[in-house]
């Protein structure tokens, strides 16, 4: 099966700055693919090259197996874009906005009506269809933004930070909607600064920086790439210096700290880290209460692989 998006050896410069450094990307049909990178990593440049909104020095971009170009209108009709910044007309109602954007792809009004109705129902804006954007909350505006991008039923949809500054209920509704689009046959390219969202909905994830791929795979595979293992937190009031030193000396312990209330241990990968820490506490007679063990997160992966927080 052909990839929905295939980018090979892409090079893009802005003067002396190398924005894309022989960049490769493959997005399979029917998947939700997460593209992560700190600000300035090249994500937006890559997306604009894929959409043929930017020229580039060398490389190849294909969408659904065909070369992408500024005049490949038959391919572009199969693409939907949901930008980070809400892009709607304040003078038009919810329905009029969706109808306008749908008309760019579907000229026949009669054919459009059902598509617009379906898009309004999909984002659950029926009771707001006559409202203008200025009367909508931030979460409802985001839903309108999505409806405008997907009303023509595109086969490939690019979501750029679709849940920025929305409430948890709207965020959950948006993520569930994206899953439904995937289940209906669409391919999704998804960018976000919210790692938990990416881990929740994406089949595969790429981390990029300095215009090139740093790592790629499922969330579980990416976590296996880094040295960090679990984080152990144990509530205790009476751990002594000797016991703390014994824990710090364990071969899998990267860091262990005690703040008079909790023992916090950052571990490298291991099969029985928690059991070994508890053995030392038991043997020293240390009393403890609550405990938790958390696996590494995508934030940990990102920080270790790039040396930066995602928003840097």
From TrEMBL:
<dbReference type="GO" id="GO:0016887">
    <property type="term" value="F:ATP hydrolysis activity"/>
</dbReference>
<keyword id="KW-0547">Nucleotide-binding</keyword>
<dbReference type="Pfam" id="PF00005">
    <property type="entry name" value="ABC_tran"/>
</dbReference>
<dbReference type="InterPro" id="IPR003593">
    <property type="entry name" value="AAA+_ATPase"/>
</dbReference>
<keyword id="KW-0067">ATP-binding</keyword>
<feature type="domain" description="ABC transporter">
    <location>
        <begin position="5"/>
        <end position="235"/>
    </location>
</feature>
<dbReference type="InterPro" id="IPR027417">
    <property type="entry name" value="P-loop_NTPase"/>
</dbReference>
<protein>
    <submittedName>
        <fullName>ABC transporter ATP-binding protein</fullName>
    </submittedName>
</protein>
<dbReference type="GO" id="GO:0005524">
    <property type="term" value="F:ATP binding"/>
</dbReference>
<dbReference type="InterPro" id="IPR003439">
    <property type="entry name" value="ABC_transporter-like_ATP-bd"/>
</dbReference>
């Amino acid at each position: 099966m052909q990839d929905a998006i295939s980018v090979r050896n892409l090079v893009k410069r802005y003067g002396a700055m190398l924005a894309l450094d022989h960049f490769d990307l493959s997005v399979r049909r029917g998947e939700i693919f997460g593209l992560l990178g700190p600000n300035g990593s090249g994500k937006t440049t890559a997306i604009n090259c894929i959409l043929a909104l930017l020229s580039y020095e060398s490389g190849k971009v294909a969408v659904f197996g065909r070369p992408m170009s500024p005049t490949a209108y038959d391919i572009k009709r199969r693409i939907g874009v949901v930008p980070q910044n809400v892009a709607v007309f304040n003078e038009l109602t919810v329905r009029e906005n969706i109808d306008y954007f749908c008309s760019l792809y579907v000229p026949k009004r009669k054919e459009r009506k059902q598509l617009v109705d379906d898009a309004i129902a999909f984002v659950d804006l029926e009771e707001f269809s006559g409202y203008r954007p200025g009367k909508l909350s931030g979460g409802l505006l985001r839903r309108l933004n999505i409806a405008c991008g997907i009303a023509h039923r595109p086969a490939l949809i690019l979501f750029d930070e679709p849940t920025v500054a929305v409430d948890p209920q709207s965020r959950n509704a948006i993520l569930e909607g994206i899953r439904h689009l995937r289940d209906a046959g669409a391919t999704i390219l998804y960018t976000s600064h919210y790692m938990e969202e990416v881990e929740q909905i994406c089949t595969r994830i790429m981390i990029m920086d300095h215009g090139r791929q740093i790592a790629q795979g499922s969330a579980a595979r990416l976590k296996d790439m880094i040295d960090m293992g679990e984080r152990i937190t144990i509530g205790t009031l009476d751990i002594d210096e000797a016991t703390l030193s014994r824990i710090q000396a364990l071969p899998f312990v990267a860091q262990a700290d005690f703040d008079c209330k909790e023992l916090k241990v950052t571990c490298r990968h291991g099969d029985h880290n928690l059991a070994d820490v508890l053995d030392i506490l038991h043997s020293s007679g240390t009393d403890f209460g609550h405990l938790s063990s958390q696996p590494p997160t995508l934030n940990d992966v990102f920080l270790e692989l790039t040396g930066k927080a995602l928003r840097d």
